[in-house]
Specification:
With 324 residues, the chain is of the alpha/beta class. It has a single domain (46-322), classed as Purple Acid Phosphatase, chain A, domain 2. It is built from 7 helices and 14 strands. The chain has helices at residues 9-15, 63-75, 99-116, 138-141, 149-155, 194-205, 249-257, and strands at 30-31, 45-51, 83-86, 121-123, 162-166, 169-173, 177-179, 188-190, 213-216, 262-267, 274-278, 281-285, 304-311, 316-322. The longest helix is centred in the N-terminal third of the chain and has 18 residues, at 99-116. It is globular.
Length: 324
Amino acid sequence: MPNIPPISRKQFLKVAGLSFLSAASACTVSQSPSTAPPTGKPKKRALRIAHLTDFHVMPMGDAPNGMRNAIRHAQAQADPPDIFLNTGDCIMDSLETTKEITEKQWETFNKIIKEECELPIVHCIGNHDVWGWGAPTPDKQSDPLYGKGMALKQLDLPERYYSFDRAGWHFIVLDSNFQAEAGSQYPYIGKLDDAQFAWLEKDIQAVDTEMPICIASHIPILCACEFFDGDNEASGDWVVPAAWMHIDARRFRQLFLQHPNIRLCLSGHSHQHETLQYCGVWYFTNGAVCGNWWRGEYLDFPPAYVLVDLYEDGSADSTFIPYG
């Protein structure tokens, strides 16, 4: 198949309502190194997660079948996952679309989940799941579903952020979408509101210090791949927009240093795959189910999902799996 050039995030917002092309792409499976030093003893796995993020599904084109194929592929693994983790951007876009179009996208997403998903699934809100921020109008802003209300309803989430325990790990799911100032290049940035950050501190403090913690967010708290997501060096300095990576990462750094049982952060958003370790915490920024918004590869990363293995000793590793 011909190589289809990637579209930028800015271009994506312009074409989100148009039909999309698709391209098949092949890539070798890559596995990240273990997040713990070798001890000579075999590790015991606690949980296998299929991390499927950035579906960007819509009723038309290749998106519905692509989403179905990704779920089926993950569930058909010889060593299957125990649970699905969806870190957001479930639908193509609701930042700039009408309520009717947004609801049709959600109808497609939920229909596929109901028909195909055989495993428990954990949901996180992505920036494109937020309705109306990109084109606010008085009728939208007065609607109780404006902003994150629509996503909470469609994903059946009682709260924007929450935590739970499973298989000896503590999981924290964050809402990393913060409404940007008027006139900003993007209608959102990666940041926690003060109430959520206070909740996060309290939640972590209540966890036994021997229990490893995994934090999930849509927008990466920390990553390196976003340096290449655009001409970010054009000014003569590296500039990564706050919409691409958490602008409050320094605040997280200080919190994480106080709690060494925080072992892993999982995110999507970048449509790229990366494993990064910093100050004792591993950051897995995992690839997109839709790849380049259903147009083949994005920056050499094809449509894919990632298997994340969590171990009883608090370590983790990941395997990038193109499913096409």
